[in-house]
Specification:
2 domains; 2% strand; two-stranded antiparallel sheet
Length: 295
Amino acid sequence: MNADSRELWRLVEPYHQLSYRSPEATAAYASIGLDRPEHQYFGSRLAALGPVSARVAVSVLYGFAPAYVARAVPSVWEAATPAAVSSARFAGAAATLRRVLGDHFGASGVAEAARLASVAAQSADLAGRPMAAAHADLDWPDEPAMVLWHACTILREHRGDAHWAATSGAGIDPVECHVLHAADGAMPGELLQRVSGWDDTEWSAATDRLIQRGLVERGGVEPGALALSAAGHEVKLHIERSTDRASAQPLAVLGTDGTRQVLDTMRPLVQQVVDSGVVATWRLREELWRDIPPE
C-alpha cells in the first residue's frame, strides 16, 4: 500500500468516528431512549445489521469482551429499533459536522471528494465483510459532507472487517490483540482494557499466553510494563500488511489522482474534526497508523 492510500485510511477513521461521542450524537441517541453509553456505542455500530444477538455482535466486532457487549445487546433493541438508531446516528453526525466544519460543510470541493469516496465505497468487494455490507445497504444521505461521512463509514468497516480476519488468521484472539497494541506502545494498556471491556483476569491470562508464545516480554521503567519481542513485532507487521492487501481494492478504483484529490479535501476537514475534540482518543490512535516497512 502506498503512502497516499495509507494516509487516506488514517483520515477516514476520525471522520467516521464523530458519530459516537459528540454532544450532538449523544443527544440524538438520548432522544430515542438510549441514555447509557454502551447502548449508544454498540447500538450505533450494530444497527445497520438489524436486531442482532450478543453472540453475533461479539463475532462481528471481534475485539470486545463478550460480557461487556452483553450489557448492551440485545437490550438496546428493547429501547429503540435498529432503524431508529440508524436515523439518530445520521442526525447526530450531520449536526456535529455542521457545527465543527462551519462554512466547510457545504464547500464546493467537498462535493467532488464525496463523489469520489462514494465511488470507492460502492465498488468495495463486500464478500466476507459483514459490517461493511450492512452499512452499504443503508440509504445514502444528500448533503456532500454527509455523503463523504457515509462513504468513510463503509470504507472504515471494510478495512475493519479485513483487519479482524487478518488478526484471527494470525492466531491472535480478541483480547490478545489489545495486549499486543499496548506492548507495542500504540496506546496505554489501561485505556485499551477499559474501552474493550476485558476484566483483569482475562487481560492477565492473555498477557501470560503472549509471553509464553514469545510475542511480548516484561520490561521497561514502569512495573509490569510490556514490550513486543522481535517475534511479536513480526506478527504485528504481518497483520498490518495482510490488512493493507485485503483492503486495497476500493482505493485502487480511485487511482492515484482520485486518491490525492480526496486527500487534499479531507486533510483540513479532519483537522477541524480532531481539533474540535469530538474524537478525543484519536490523537492517541494516530500512532496505530505510523508507516510500516515495505515487504
